[in-house]
Amino acid sequence: MSDSIIDVVIIGAGPAGIQAAIHAARKKTRVLVLGRIENSALYGAHIENYACIKGVTDGKDLLEAGMSQIKHFGADILAEDVLKIEQREQLFALELESSKTIICRTVIFSMGVSKKKLSVPGERELSGQGVSYCVDCDANFYRGATVMVAGNRSAAVDGALTLLGYADKVYLVAQQLNVTDELMERLQQSRVEVLEPAWIKEIHGDQEVSSVTLENNSSIDIDGIFIELGSKGALELATQVGVALDSEYFKYINTNRKQETNISGIYAAGDIVGPPYQMAKAVGEGCVAGMNAATYARRQKKPT
Fold it and tell me: Of 227, 242, 270, which marks where a domain is finished?
């Protein structure tokens, strides 16, 4: 085979992708990581619930340390997005945003899921500084605080109810709630203050969230806001080569315990295979995917 063929290409530079690269590279295979750490959900987060990390650690620092490890073990990194992927017999061709085409033996999808955003002033600037997209990840940072959840469906209601165990005051702002009768009953019997119909116009704060303005121009003082609009998986690439999605929601990639998909040579790890959206889960799955992808790639090589 040509030396231009890469053994393992990892799409995504978050915790799952980094760990996959470390384990694949240690198996003496040629590894390429495609992606940017700033696109990871961990980049603007703070971590305190990961084993062996004391206190609160900045997610950006962890990702940068991981990229250094990747390079140390001999993997290459390319800060480019993949536009298309196609299968060519037992190989895969990936078209990058620079129009370059990469040929590889295996692919690991670890690009996470794209969180839907409000797209209002202040949201991007205060992301990770009071604007969060994961109640399960960040609720503990808001003990005794006043928080708001924005969303119309079950994820938002469930998030608001969860936050009652941490925050002193919880608002839920929704244009029109669309949840089951059971969940609506739980909400109505709770201490959550529901603002409906209403929506966010702007998020305010200097270094951290301090208030929001609603579309009716009323202002509410808060310490943090959780955007729970659901998440859209980065699945377009996977479906281009027939990778199977979960049968219930069609927004996650199906894998077995080896992190294999239904397509030989394609693996997946991290948020893209489903919740919980936790770094510990992503790292574990990345480890499994990296080792198995490297083993598969070595077996595919023809003897010289």
Answer: 227
252 and 179 within one domain = no
Provide the sign of the torsion angle of the four alpha carbons 98, 80, 132, 183, taken in this order. positive
DSSP 273: G
E strands in the chain: 6-11, 31-34, 46-47, 57-58, 76-78, 82-88, 91-96, 101-109, 113-115, 131-132, 146-150, 169-173, 193-195, 200-205, 209-214, 219-221, 224-227, 231-233, 266-268
Give the pair of three-digit tokens for residue 107: 């692919």
- 11 — pLDDT class (breaks 50, 70, 90): very high
> pTM to 2 decimals?
0.71
The model's pLDDT over 143-156, given as tens digits with 9 standing for 90+, comes to 999 999 999 987 78
Size of the chain, expressed as the number of residues it contains: 304
- 230 burial (CB, 10 Å; 0-12 / 13-18 / 19+) is middle
